[in-house]
Design a protein that fits this description.
six-stranded mixed sheet, 2 domains
């Protein structure tokens, strides 16, 4: 079969990218596992990619390299389906053969030509469609992938590459732009005209289907990010899809550790919304006030409003952040009543009468790209009981780096206290919660001792 010159160039580029690996990020023996499609290399999987038009060129290059590396190392018998977004046109549908990478490449043949041409297309994408995913129809397209694979028995992992702020020029009333999100009734009420309506005809997907969302840029509006986390967790759960989280690192979609993650985003399966279907607007973000001497100069800008609010109303606030050379590092707050075993506030249970976790963060700063003064996002919790009654632990949930440093801020009775905590300890995914005193992955924080380290008044 003859190949046209463009197709031949695409295939040649694919061979090259197979040789250089996934963007040069899989150099160590441990990181080489990123190239495999699953943590159990003897188990086939179904990988479904939804790739938006208009992604930055650097993202497209990285994605091409990662897909090539995946094809080289994935378990034989695995399926790869790639959809162009937002129209969900099927660009590639491949079952990965056994054998060497050369044999795999010959067997795949022209199966990736459309995908490569799509990634290399430099045509301008209209703003209404650029980086849009077509999120409402993602579950239906995953179903189509199952039909193409002819099997519902293999695990399915879905990676979405694009902007989670939904917009469709045909139905602008349901746009997420302007800090708006659909109500719960919009997804469940049969009268709803929302594209996110889950109909009775929508059959659930096989149990165990996981979805991870790669965003083109780092979130600046953390309130909107948190609100979208909750919405997409609820929406995809109605289709039996576990929405794990957002990330802005493309390689995360191809890591073994990502497939093993469980969503830490809370979900209320008993929630009821009796109001008509509608869009709910978040309050406009508050302009940063002139703090003057109210806060110390090293109070991070990203949480200044939250800290100021706690100072002004007398609330007790905990804010946790960390920096690490490993992007997947995850440190968690665990809050309980002292000498009172039982209820504990953490990512699994975010609300109790003595404390509430208002933001759980899966990853924070990166030492290679962020400064110590202001990290990307802060884990936040409010304490509702006196400090001497509270017991606080930090758990190294995931931590493969040897350089992790945490900053813990405590806002109490109008003052701010700060503690720097060395967390150069391995992650244990909270497995030692029952015997944390003997575990290096757990550190107990004495809040009363923090009162001697005032950062500002």
């Amino acid at each position: 079969m003859k190949l046209n010159p463009f197709a031949y160039f695409g295939l040649l580029l694919l061979v090259t990218s197979m040789l250089i690996g996934c963007g040069g990020v899989v150099d160590t023996a441990k990181d080489s596992q990123v190239r495999h499609g699953t943590s159990d290399v003897n188990r086939a999987e179904q990988l479904v990619l939804f790739v938006a038009e208009g992604l930055p060129k650097s993202d497209r290059v990285t994605l091409e390299h990662c897909v090539a590396s995946y094809l080289e190392h994935a378990t034989a018998g695995s399926f790869l389906h790639i959809y162009r977004c937002p129209d969900h046109f099927l660009l590639a549908s491949i079952q990965i053969p056994d054998g060497t990478k050369q044999h795999r490449f010959r067997s795949i043949g022209q199966g990736l030509n459309e995908f490569i041409a799509f990634l290399q297309d430099e045509s301008e994408v209209p703003p209404d469609f650029a980086q849009q995913v077509g999120a409402p129809t993602v579950p239906a397209s995953i179903w189509s992938s199952n039909s193409l694979s002819g099997s519902r028995s293999i695990p399915t992992f879905v990676a979405v590459f694009g902007d989670p702020i939904y917009f469709d020029p045909v139905e602008p009333v349901w746009s997420f732009r302007g800090r708006r999100l659909p109500s719960l009734s919009s997804t469940l009420d049969p009268r709803s005209t929302s594209p996110f309506l889950v109909t009775l005809e929508a059959s659930p997907l096989p149990e165990g289907t996981k979805l991870f969302w790669i965003t083109p840029t780092t979130f600046v509006d953390h309130e909107m990010q948190d609100a979208m986390r909750l919405f997409y967790r609820q929406f995809f759960n109605q289709h039996s899809i576990e929405f794990i989280d957002f990330s802005n690192d493309i390689v995360d979609a191809f890591r073994n550790t990502t497939r093993e993650l469980e969503s830490k985003i809370p979900i209320n399966s008993d929630a009821i919304d009796i109001e008509p279907p509608r869009m709910i607007a978040l309050p406009p973000p508050q302009a940063a006030p002139d703090f003057g001497d109210t806060l110390s100069s090293d109070t991070p800008e990203s949480i200044r409003n939250e800290v100021l609010k706690a100072k002004s109303n007398g609330s007790t606030l905990l804010a946790l952040n960390w920096q690490s050379k490993a992007n997947d590092t995850d440190i968690d707050l665990w809050i309980s009543r002292r000498h009172s075993p039982g209820v504990e506030v953490n990512f699994e249970n975010q609300l109790a009468d003595f404390a509430s976790l208002v933001r759980d963060v899966r990853s924070s700063g990166n030492l290679s790209s962020s400064s110590h003064a202001d990290f990307m996002a802060w884990e936040l919790a409010y304490l509702k009981s006196p400090l001497h009654t509270i017991e606080l632990w930090l758990n190294s949930y995931v931590n493969s780096a040897a350089d992790t440093v945490c900053v813990l801020l405590l806002v109490h009775q109008g003052s701010i206290y700060k503690q720097i905590i060395d967390m150069k300890v391995p992650g244990d995914r909270a497995e030692a919660r029952g015997h944390r005193l003997g575990s290096t992955s757990w550190k107990k924080i004495e809040l009363n001792q923090m009162l001697g380290s005032v950062a500002s008044r």
